[in-house]
Design a protein that fits this description.
Number of strands: 5
Structural class: alpha/beta
CATH topology of the largest domain: Rossmann fold
Strand order of the largest sheet: 2-3-4-1-5
Shape: elongated
Oligomer: single chain
CATH class of the largest domain: Alpha Beta
CATH superfamily of the largest domain: P-loop containing nucleotide triphosphate hydrolases
Distance between the termini: 24 Å
CATH architecture of the largest domain: 3-Layer(aba) Sandwich
Bound molecules: zinc ion
Length: 295
């Protein structure tokens, strides 16, 4: 595995950054998320929901208020959405000026709550005229509104658009490749979620503790896989994505229902600490056991 690969730059980290931004009351007017459709929609929607939430905790949507419920049901009055499918006109290969104009008209109306959040999915399909048309809105959005652009690659957008957005590139989280490690990470996560005692968690990690060939590499790969699961749980808790997460793991949704954000943060903290220790050359067995205690 490559050192500090996707875990360093994955969606969970971006979500945490965004939550910290919101918690600090700093709402940027325009965001651009680039990456695969699943990743950009997941993060973009989690952000939109958190911005609209009536009672966000530490920058994350509460999942309980009227706004969060409306968002989940896809009928939030202040959430505006434009993509190729919903854009006016018949040219179904790009989004033209009329799509942007329609969005701008909606943004001029008074929001139901505090502000509008407008999302443009497939922003890479905005034609040049449409992108130019968008510049003014990106610079001075009506009221307190926030624009969230989603695109495959930022190279497909004009530099003038990019310079007006806070740009985040999303990685597809890695680590889900080795089926044995994935099974182990899932068992371990399920034990932790169930509040199993230390010795049971430690025993679960026996294959790693007894690994002879490449114990450090195996342990690091395990941590990466475990982090991937935590990230998916976080996305699930943010209700940012439905269905596609850990789709081949029937117990996943039930586990998510048991988790709360605090427990998940603690878990992620313990995994990161273990990751750091292993990279610093600490004893593998000692580090993993310590993680079992702290998780
Ligand atoms: Zn809420």
């Amino acid at each position: 595995m490559t050192p500090m690969s996707p875990a360093e730059n994955d969606n969970r980290k971006v979500l945490e950054q965004l939550q910290a931004l919101l918690a600090g009351g700093k709402v940027v007017h325009a965001f651009l998320f680039t990456g695969s459709r699943d990743a950009r929609l997941a993060v973009g929607k989690a952000l939109a929901k958190a911005i609209l939430c009536e009672d966000p905790a530490e920058g994350a949507a509460c999942r309980n208020c009227a706004s969060c419920h409306k968002f989940d049901h896809g009928n939030h009055e202040d959430f505006l959405y434009l993509d190729l499918e919903t854009a006016p006109g018949n040219a179904k290969t790009q989004i033209g000026v009329d799509g942007v104009e329609a969005l701008q008209e909606q943004l001029k109306l008074k929001p139901f709550g505090r502000r509008h959040v407008a999302m443009i999915e497939e922003a890479h399909l905005l034609n040049t005229a449409a992108q130019n048309k968008l510049l003014k809105t990106l610079e001075e959005p009506a009221g307190d509104s926030v624009l969230i652009l989603l695109a495959e690659k930022k190279e497909e957008l004009l530099p003038t658009v990019l310079s007006r957005c806070s740009v985040y590139h999303l990685e597809e989280g890695g680590g889900h490749t080795d089926p044995e490690l994935l099974a182990l990470a899932r068992s371990f996560f399920a034990l932790c979620a169930a509040g199993a005692l230390f010795y049971r968690r430690r025993d679960c990690l026996k294959p790693l503790l007894e690994e002879k060939a490449e114990p450090r590499e195996k342990a690091l790969a395990f941590l990466l896989t475990l982090e991937g699961i935590c990230r998916d749980v976080l996305l699930c808790l943010c209700k940012a994505q439905n269905g596609a997460l850990q789709a081949d793991w029937p117990a996943f949704e039930e586990l998510c229902a048991k988790m709360d954000l605090e427990a998940l943060k603690r878990e992620i903290g313990a995994i990161e600490e273990a990751n750091r220790c292993l990279r610093l050359g600490y004893n593998v067995g000692y580090t993993l056991k310590k993680m079992c205690l702290n998780i």
